[in-house]
Amino acid sequence: MRKSYYYSTYCEDSFVVLNQMQQPNPLKAPSFIQSLQFILNPVGFLEKVHQQYPDIFTAKIFGFTGIPVVVVQHPQAIQEILTNDRKKFVVPGHVNKILQPLLGKHSLLMVSGEQHKRQRQLVMPSFHKERMQSYGQLIVNLTEKVMSQLSLNQVFSACSVMQEISLQVILQAVFGLYEGQRYEKLKHLLPLMLGLFRSPLYNSFLFFPFLQKDFGAWSPWGRFVRIRQQIDELLYAEIAERRVQPNSDRIDILSLLMEATDEEGQPMTDKELRDELMTMLVGGFDSTAIAMAWELYWTHHLPEVGEKLRQELDTLGNSKNPMDIFRLPYLSAVCNETLRIYPVGVMANVRFVQEPVELLGYHLEPGTAVIPCIYLTHHRKDLYQKPKQFLPERFLQHQYSPYEFLPFGGGVRRCIGDALAMFEMKLVLATILSHYKLALADHQPVTLQRQIMFVGPGNGIKMVMTGRRTPFKIPQSTSKTTQSFY
Ligand code: HEM
């Protein structure tokens, strides 16, 4: 076993002794209390500790493992970590092992080292910023379709409606499915499966693998296994069909992945394709939906922000091109500020030190677990004046470095869906603000709550549609790539 993996085995005495000597600002509470506080109220826990240790501290938040993890929220230390990923720091795939029943063992999140490098090289070109343009019209049309199903004056949950949009974007742009039986079945089964893991019962199955017992269709784990099997059958059938009938006109991400080959000319196997699709679903579905629900919250909680945005959209006239919308400065600032104030992923992936390093004057030995804390970095008073206030203008006045503003993490593990998520966030918000009049239905202060891997609004953000505006027109594209969706 390699050195770093040796140290990360929490039951090894040497690991514990070593870290007790080196820990920067260790928290004193017992590990189960720290873990419980972090699981139940991640942001409350982090904010409390931040007051005492604003740059770096050591917590035991990994449940029964008791592994100490150095939590870092100083841009200089974050830069050191993210610019030395794969050299001084490594994200071993096994840290995400609890997600294996959902994602499969070939998932990008499950692999490390050379295997991770190969898979990223295969996947990344499909997510390139320029490619996202092809999905513009699709996103606007889907937003229209979902929003038009809402009734006037009826209360709805912004999170649920944004999930509907986010799921359909993934099904169409990523999976390449936009109609027919397979599409309908997956549209029903995928949220059903992910919905199971919103309950504490199913979450505990992930944390305690010995509970993962299939006692038939009516047992909780058996129910999950059967839904997953149905999903797998549909995905493998789709992959098989495309292998027999390849269509070079298709621009969905699955088609691009099927064409991709590694340095040795090898394409992805069916199992790798299936696991990557599930990873994109789990990584992209809730995260983007939560971010879009927050955008609706802020633009209606602070009507002056919504109004300023509408005025900016009006400058584009009646016929709006998705790329012109994407480039609007105030819209970009609103999206950035949304991801700054409540980043959907409060922490990046945990990294393990590979060779002795210094972080902010602390000496860390190989095997030490470190984690860049996105939320606390985004709330530093020395970087962001009045950090608790939603002020999009700060992004117009100042350019933040990737170690000061990092909603998508960074280094070799940076989110692969960042361009798609930003594109979707901008087009969905622009479409809704231009076409519909909405209002918040609940004026209670929002609470933050853990949602599987992410943190989102506790009450789902209750809103109501109060009217419609004159819709703007998206110029019809004549390119074959855009038409192939319809
Ligand atoms: C607003 C939306 C999103 C946010 C805030 C977000 C955030 C993140 C963060 C913080 C990470 C960890 C990065 C690190 O450890 O340095 C990550 C990784 C990842 N994200 Fe996202 N994400 C979003 C949307 C998406 C979408 C749309 C997809 C795919 C369609 C996606 C797929 C992934 C994958 C596959 C990884 C793992 C990358 C790797 O380990 O190499 N995410 N994301």
From TrEMBL:
Organism: Fischerella sp. SAG 46.79
Coiled coil residues, start to end: none
GO molecular function list: heme binding; iron ion binding; monooxygenase activity; oxidoreductase activity, acting on paired donors, with incorporation or reduction of molecular oxygen
Family: Belongs to the cytochrome P450 family.
Tagged with keyword Transferase: no
One protein family per Pfam: p450
Domain of life according to the entry: Bacteria
InterPro entries: Cyt_P450 (IPR001128), Cyt_P450_CS (IPR017972), Cyt_P450_E_grp-I (IPR002401), Cyt_P450_sf (IPR036396), Cytochrome_P450_Monoox (IPR050196)
Protein name: FisB4
Cofactor: heme
Binding-site list for heme: 415
Keyword DNA-binding: no
PROSITE patterns: CYTOCHROME_P450 (PS00086)
Keywords, in A-Z order: Heme, Iron, Metal-binding, Monooxygenase, Oxidoreductase
